[in-house]
Every structure is written in C-alpha cells, then in structure tokens.
Design brief:
By secondary structure, the chain is an alpha+beta fold. The protein is about 30% helix and about 25% strand.
Length: about 210
C-alpha cells in the first residue's frame, strides 16, 4: 500500500511491462487524466522525463513572519497586526519549479538533486544509452523519485535508483537500504562489465559535491 492518494499514484507513477505482470493494484482509469500510466513493454525514457521529471528542484530563500511597525510592515497578520518577512540566512527551501511545492528545508551547504540527471542521464550513460525502465514514480510531493530496471527473471524487478530531496540525499546508499546499491551494481555488471563500479564512483562524486 502507499500513503499517496489514488489520484497521485495514477498520474505520478509509470508502470511498464504490464503484458508480463498485469496492472498495478492502484490502477484506476478514471484517475489518469486521459493518459494511461501503464505500458505493455518498457517505459520510454522520454515519457519518464516529460511526465515525471519535467521540472527542476530550485533553491529559494526562506523567511519567517515577525512583528513590525507601520513603517517596516509588509502585510497584516490574520488578526490585523503589522508584520514583515525576515529572511533566514542559514536555511534554504528546496522547491519544485512547476508548482512551488516545498520538498524540504535545509542548511546552506545542501546540494539539491535534479532527478532527470540522477535517474536518467547518469544511468543511461553507464549503459551506453540502452536504458529500459520498468517503473518510475514520484512520492512525497516529488521529494522522492524512483526508477527501476527490468530484472533477468521477467517479473522480478531490480531497483535502479532512489533519489531523495532530504537528509539521506541518496536513499540507495543509506545503511537501511545498502542492499539496493549492491543489487544495482550486480545488474550493471551483468549488462556491461565495469559499469557497476563506474556507477558507484559517480554516486560518490555526486554526494561529495
């Protein structure tokens, strides 16, 4: 199950290879805005880009509402008192460029991830652009993104990457999901010898930036 609504799951997740595994449990035709999120075969990379990752994670200044006098006020509070906005210098809000959703609040040193780059470009480069995607989606208002590669066993799917606009930065490398990185490395190595190590190095460089 999921904490996301059916409407969200039907418009912000894409499910591939339904000829082999059938429809997802959350599939509802009436919730899909006229465009099915299910594909009989692999999901086109362009669809993942256009339907899920067609926005950027932007860094924006954060402000709090403080008391003000009539000269410095910028607005009135809910109870009619003068207030102004004061920028918080040591915090930034990471927001979606398309709908302004605040995905997280972080210190000034936090480096935001662009999902299109992390989940599509980097992996495609490692696989010589021969990238097949079996499922992809956004969770938590877009703060978490996932893409999956088809496994060797047909219905068995191997997680590709989980990226997160949060303190864990790349969920696939946290202690609780270390198996994810191991599974992906093995998948890469099966497709192209040396690609697993190259992926791990690229992730390490990305997190250090």
């Amino acid at each position: 199950m999921s904490k996301e609504s059916l409407a969200w799951l039907n418009t912000n997740t894409l499910i591939g290879f339904t000829d082999k595994r059938g429809h997802a449990w959350h599939w509802r035709a009436q919730e899909q805005d006229g465009a099915s999120n299910h594909y009989p075969g692999p999901i086109p990379v362009t669809d993942v880009q256009d339907r899920l990752f067609g926005w950027t994670a932007d860094s924006r200044r954060l402000a709090t509402e403080v008391e003000a006098d009539l000269q410095s006020m910028t607005h009135l509070s809910e109870d009619g008192q003068p207030r102004r906005w004061a920028v918080v210098p040591d915090r930034q809000a990471i927001c979606r460029s398309d709908d302004d959703t605040v995905m997280g609040i972080f210190g000034p040193g936090y480096v935001r991830h662009q999902f299109s780059e992390w989940l599509l470009t980097t992996v495609a480069d490692l696989l010589d652009d021969d990238l097949a995607i079996s499922s992809a989606g956004l969770l938590r208002g877009g703060a978490v993104a996932t893409a999956m590669l088809p496994g060797d066993g047909g219905d068995d799917l191997v997680p590709a990457l989980l990226a997160d606009q949060g303190p864990d930065e790349l969920l696939g490398l946290t202690a609780t999901t270390a198996w994810l990185a191991s599974a992906l490395i093995k998948q890469f190595e099966a497709i192209a010898p040396g690609a697993g190590e190259a992926w791990l190095q690229s992730v390490a460089v990305g997190l250090a930036e």
